[in-house]
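Let's practice the habit of predicting before peeking. Look at the sequence and jot down your guess about where helices and strands might fall. Then scroll down.
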Amino acid sequence: MRPIHRAALVLCCQVHVGCEKRTPSLVDNLPELPSELAETLTLSTSGTQLVGKPVRVNTPAPPIQNPHAAAKSSHAVTEYDVFAAYPLTICQDPTPASTMMARSAPVAAKAGKGNGPTEALPDRYFKLTPKRGAAVNPLEHDFFCHVHYGPWTAKVHEEESCLDGGPNRFTLNVVNVELVWYGAWEDVPQTPPLEVFLGTRVLRHVSYPCCSGFQWCSSANSCRAQNLPCPGPTL
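Done guessing? Here is the structure:
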């Protein structure tokens, strides 16, 4: 077979519509990043990646307290670790290694409900096209996106109310999310796509600081009202 001369190839491309040469992308066969995830992207501090924005779930107003409730001199502040699932999205230039990882990934299953950290979705892989990524940063080509659902180790800060019968305040921090609620552990609000696996919580630390209006008196080894002097040392 005679070789095709370069001039003939150029002529072919000028005559036939759609003959323009295009270098295949490493992410051509991946699905498009869902819009709900694309809308959360922002440019990383390094300027080389697009990452999910930090999310702060609306903090609820503190519950109305009983004006006749007795004030406590101290309260418990407890720190926990707990597993949680949440989609962390990172988009960057595709590489052969990243696309090989995507091809070998298992098919994503539907997330379950319950207390097991293994119920988080498996990692998923997408492409981000210049049209969809333009809202965040102009892209010259398709980006490779890795969505990792965890499970992550969330840090939970529980602060006991300083009024008798008052609800405790919880603050949960995990990857890009901060969540606040009042009441008990079981009152954690349902805020998809965040899922907290309550059965995995582990106690890390407990302290007993003084409540507002009280001071620590080492001589009494307790919290006393600030308008009163601490007792002198016992002889």
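How did you do? The CA atoms of residues 7 and 209 lie 83 Å apart.
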